[in-house]
Every structure is written in structure tokens, then in C-alpha cells.
Amino acid sequence: MFARGVWMNLLNPKAIVFLLAFIPGFVHTDRSLLGQYAVIAATIIVVDIVVMWFFFAVVARGFRRVSSGEHGQRILNRVCGVLFIAVGVLLAVA
User: How many helices (H) and strands (E) does the chain have?
Assistant: First the structure.
């Protein structure tokens, strides 16, 4: 699972485009590029670990309590459905 996740993130076109657009603003060509890219990579990895592992682990516990029963799953499905519809309407309006 870990290797699959790594390959999925490395080959994700959205992430690649985002990083190609985002990183050059933080790189100074007059300094060592290897050191700068190492700092940027370490920062991205640390932030990803903090957000994905810690934040989503806490949120997952709450969702487990809500979605353990059939009634909770129905409520969760309706809330997510409403959110998707709202995002679709916002995109259509924008």
C-alpha cells in the first residue's frame, strides 16, 4: 500500500503541475540548487505527514463514530451529497 501511494503521488499530474508552478518562486538561481530543493522537498514531506497522518487520523476517528451505524452513514452521505452539489453550483456560477 505504501509503495502504491508513493507511485500515485509521484505520477499525479495535478501535483506535478502545481509543484512546477509553485517551486520556482522559492528558488534562487544564484545559490546552491541542490540545497534549496532539499529544503523544499523536506518541507513538503513534513507538511504532508503532519496533515495526512495526524489531522486525518483525528478526523477519521470522528467519522468512524458517526458512520458506524446505518443512520450515521445515511446522514454522512446526505451531507457529502449536499456539499458536492453546492460545489457544482458554485463552479457553474463562477
Answer: 5, 0
Can you give the pTM of this predicted structure?
0.54
CA distances from 46 to 10, 43, 51, 58 (A): 16, 5, 9, 17
Of 84, 1, 32, the C-alpha closest to 92 is 84
Q: pLDDT tens digits, residue range 44-54?
A: 889 888 888 88
Domain assignment present for residue 62? The answer is: yes
Count structural domains, the chain: 1
Containing domain of residue 36, as a range? Answer: 2-69
- CB 72 within 8 Å of CB 66: yes
What is the tens place of the pLDDT at every residue in 55-74?
888 888 877 877 888 888 89
